[in-house]
Amino acid sequence: MAFPAEKRREFRRGTLRACWLVVLCSANLYAALCAPLRETVSELTEHQARAYAEVLNMRPAAACALLGAGTDAGTLLVQDCLGITELLVSQDAARFESTVAAQDARLAALDGQAGPLAEYAAAEIRLHQAAAQVVFNHEVQGAWSLRRSYGAMQRVVERYPNYLPARKTLGMLQFFIGSLPEGYRWFLRLLGLPGSIDAGLTNLRRAASQPNDFQLEARLVLALLEETYYKKPAAALALVERLHREQPENQLLVFLLISQRKKQHRTDEALAAYRARPTGPDYLPLPYLHHLAADLLLYQGQYPASRRANELFLRQYRGRHYLKDAYFKLYLACWLGGDAPAAGRYRARIGPAGRTVLEEDTYAQRFFDDPQPLDATLTRARLQIDGGYYRPALATLTTFRASAATPLRDQLEHLYRRARALHLLGQPDSARVLYAQTIARAGSAPYYYAPQSALQLGYLYQLEGQRNTAKAYFQKALSYSRHEYKNSTDTKAKLALAELK
């Protein structure tokens, strides 16, 4: 069985959105049916819980020392959490086969073990396996593992309705499947998996609101979903900041803190967290942090420092995602910094590097393939807006001069960037006019400025209570067939429409 190339890319895109959250199997059916319904082992031991905390801290040696050996469900589960964390963080293909073999051995050891923890562990390990298989190009096996994990997790919830960890994972799966854009319907039909945004959020909220071994993970997943798709950035950032104050040694929380501050355009604070991050040989290397820092430095116009950070990322990283994006950002740092020869060298490396699964890499590849050069003024303004420097961005945009010869792409970007800066400065009326002008001028041009303008107009009218107008703009955002950020734009528009029903 083989997927068409584009369908493989769609499947990986959808699954990769969940892989970092998976970090943070069906058992034998006969044994599951015959096992007593009385809940046996349902919680991690104290040592297992402490070891799991060290997994989240990304301190593998400390986790192993606490965990020890054993074939009980809690030990096997935490061992697998550590294994999948090391694989997905390193993105090292050389570790894939041994990781999957270890997962198979753990599943065999769990076969016949009964009780909520054992059955949950088997389903969770199978989900980890699905993530590993999809990330490392084994899509068919990954699809089958995902289906088995989903079915097993459903059975855990049915047999043990008060066992909250299973609701955490099932809720996450239900949400992601339910929120997939229309282009993924082939995937849902293939797997026969029911998705439900409402059921997913209900399960996640139950797991996040009541004490259980994996409550922290449930709270983080829920907060990140609400921040990304339901425009609740303040709540997500407040949670991450509070947890970080309580656990400053936790590298996962540091990563989330930097990432959330970056997404919310708080560059200075994000860089402060990056510079104060815990380091040392006890911690699992996290090269992606340097890639985040490179972006933040680029926003500030610190081009040599941004270049050094991305070069460090490339030296340490073993994966194939974010490579095109890294070379694109290196190109920008050199081009804007006045080093044209280096910029040319980095630009040439975008094409052959990595893959175009993630939207960042797709954007970089489109830049590489497009013979039309970027405009330096608009590029600086974009970086300033991304960094939260809205007034400097508006000042930069005032120096842009359009003429009859100005390409349509640059005309659209100029309108859109002004709209974004004004919107983020709290001037929605001015932003609304410019968003509408962007849509009107774009027509069917294959750029993301018009669909993003439609999405932002939908949000603005939704806030004002103008439901019909908001609905029309969300549907408009979905109507664009080709642009760099179609998957994320469509998902956000779909979820916003569901809220308006």
From TrEMBL:
It comes from the Bacteria. TPR repeats lie at residues 451-484. Gene3D superfamilies: Tetratricopeptide repeat domain. Keywords: TPR repeat. InterPro entries: TPR-like_helical_dom_sf, TPR_rpt. This is Tetratricopeptide repeat-containing protein. The lineage of its organism: Bacteria, Pseudomonadati, Bacteroidota, Cytophagia, Cytophagales.
